[in-house]
Amino acid sequence: MEAMRLHRIIEKDGELLITDLPCKKGRHVEVIVQPELSTLPQPLRLTAKQLLESDIVGLWQDREDVADSAAFASQLRAI
């Protein structure tokens, strides 16, 4: 039997209904479920200008407990 690609929308959490398959009772089949890449949320990408204009740059400038922001960021990444 040739592989088939079906596109469905999940109607109810945790359930997928597939009907009208060209398979007879007792036939063994393999089902692989994978989200369509085009429907996954895309990560936000900022240009350098947008990043500089955002509130991210200078976020820690007024924190008294962060003397060296680069060292602090390195410590956070190590956790």
Which sequence of SSEs, written as H and E, runs from N to C?
HH
**Which word captures the global form?**
elongated
Q: What percent of residues are in strands?
A: under 5%
Continuous helix count: 2
Distance between the termini: 50 Å
Unreliable segments of 5+ consecutive residues: none
Mean pLDDT across the residues is 86
Percent range of helical residues: 10-25%
Strand tally is 0
| Coarse structural class | mainly alpha
Radius of gyration: 25 Å
The biggest beta sheet, please? Answer: none
Summarize the structure.
The protein contains 2 helices and no strands.
What report would you give on this structure?
The protein is built from two helices and no strands. It is elongated and about 70 Å long. The chain has 79 residues and is mainly α. It has a domain of 35 residues. The mean pLDDT is 86.
Task: Please outline the helices and strands.
Blueprint lengths: L47 H6 L15 H10 L1
List keywords for this structure.
79 residues, 2 helices, 20% helix, elongated
